[in-house]
Amino acid sequence: MRTQLTLTAGAALVACLAAPATASAAPAAERVAPSVRQQLPVAETVVTEGQVKEAAPGGVIRYPSVTSCLTVTVHLRSGGAVAAHASLFQVPGELRSDQILGRIKSLVGDRTVTAVDVKGAVGAWHPGYFTKAIESYGEGEQVPVPEGQDFAGLTSAVAGGLGVPTASVTVRDVPDGDQVVEVPRG
């Protein structure tokens, strides 16, 4: 194992030294030989319930244990993505469902959004949970209950909350488990 690591590191060093001087502006992974590039680690961004994070171009996003949740992945024209894991009920110390879209929007800023993917337990979500979290209802107030899978309602709520066209939002019901998303380079 040690010999293999030494050879890989040596090959990467030789490839970097052999690269033309004009390649110095390219990202490090693009300056090495393709056979070595495949062995470089990929940046992984783990987004758990109630979190919103930015993911680097060329990396992956992992949303662990998506059961009653929805994930929102905002792909950026410049590369990279903003990722959110919206939970039906607030996880202590994390964001409520009605805070998720605002946090995404602030992280995106003025960058161009190319697509928004919403995935998870569509049937467990009422579109209104993005504007008023279940925990926000007071005693005696009626919490809206989802009636089936409201793809159109969720599409509209996410598009409106992010200020993007509804045509750029895709909503899909996916089975329970981890979700892994590859992040485009741009």
What is the count of DSSP helices, taking H or I runs of 4+ residues? 5
As a whole number of angstroms, the C-alpha radius of gyration is 20 Å
Span of the ends, CA to CA: 35 Å
Instruction: Please count the beta strands (DSSP E, at least 2 residues each).
Output: 8
Beta-sheet strand percentage?
Answer: 15-25%
Oligomer classification: single chain
* Low-confidence blocks of residues: 1-34
| Net shape | globular
Structural class comes to alpha/beta
Task: Describe the largest sheet.
Answer: 5 strands, mixed
Mean pLDDT: 85
How helical, in percent, are the residues? 25-40%
Cross-sheet strand order for the largest sheet: 2-5-4-6-7
Helices and strands, in order, run as HHHEEEEEHEHEE
Commentary on this structure:
There is one protein chain. With 186 residues, the chain is an alpha/beta fold. Helices cover 26% and strands 25% of the residues. It has five helices and eight strands. The chain is globular and about 55 Å long. The protein starts with a helix and ends with a strand.
